[in-house]
């Protein structure tokens, strides 16, 4: 029993034609090792520099505990000054993470330090891209992005272990209904196949992302990330050309999310227990049928 994890393709550089034909159109992940070599951020974005720039901002912190069924999916566990958090993750292991925080919005001069990969594709969305920070050992639980954008995820000041799965495996990954994350009761690094048999035989990809390297994650890809060092990343998001995917994104962000929040608020644990049972039922059914 095992997961089948193959290495994500890598290239130092790639032409627009090769990227579109071999990765964007077939929706295949890729690590571009030197995409950031002209970015001022590659040398400039140290922990000390970011502390000087946005250190006084209060930021929400997230840990690895299972989500509270009565709260929205992005409810934080604590708050802290950004500068104090940077000190914390440099001292040693911690499971506290920052995500959905936008230092660039608070310090627009950071906009000058990176480049959207418009040489590869168009449709980039964010004027102020989000940044993500984690202490050594902290984990981003298995999920896919609710807006279904393509992601160019660049890492700084350390290493990050990343595991990806095509969206076709959603049911076998125990996808929670009316959400874009998986059942939180298993460890994708070391799954218990007896307890979660639908995971056996799933095909995925993995890599270690190093300082300055950029991972292209196509729309809908499931991703799990573990910070091997206290470090941080920036994600640049771009629309897929498909109007069907744009429509699904709009549905996810409005109807599905609103419905899920209302149900969690009103039915709390009972609703979450029902969703988890349904996730298991669907995974077992997909396994029995021999399908992703």
What layout of secondary structure does this protein have?
Blueprint (H helix, E strand, L loop, with lengths): L3 E4 L2 E2 L4 H9 L5 E3 L8 H4 L2 H8 L3 E4 L16 E4 H10 L5 E5 L1 H4 L24 E4 L4 E5 L6 E7 L3 E6 L37 E7 L4 E4 L4 E6 L3 E8 L4 H46 L4
Parallel strand pairs: 1-11, 2-3
Antiparallel strand pairs: 3-12, 4-5, 6-7, 7-14, 8-13, 9-12, 9-14, 10-11, 10-13
InterPro entries: Cupin_8, JmjC_dom
Protein name: Cupin-like domain-containing protein
Q: Can you tell me about this structure?
A:
It contains six helices and 14 strands. The strands form three sheets. Strands 2-3-12-9-14-7-6 form a seven-stranded mixed sheet, with no helix packed on it. A five-stranded mixed sheet has the order 1-11-10-13-8, with no helix packed on it. It has a two-stranded antiparallel ribbon with strand order 4-5. It has 292 residues and is of the alpha+beta class. The longest helix has 46 residues, at 243-288. Strand 2 (10-11), helix 1 and strand 3 (30-32) form a beta-alpha-beta unit. Helices cover 28% and strands 24% of the residues. It starts with a strand and ends with a helix. The radius of gyration is 19 Å and the shape is globular. The chain has a single domain, classed as Cupin (Jelly Rolls, Sandwich). The mean pLDDT is 93. InterPro entries: Cupin_8, JmjC_dom. It comes from Mucilaginibacter glaciei. This is Cupin-like domain-containing protein. Residues 105-255 form the JmjC domain.
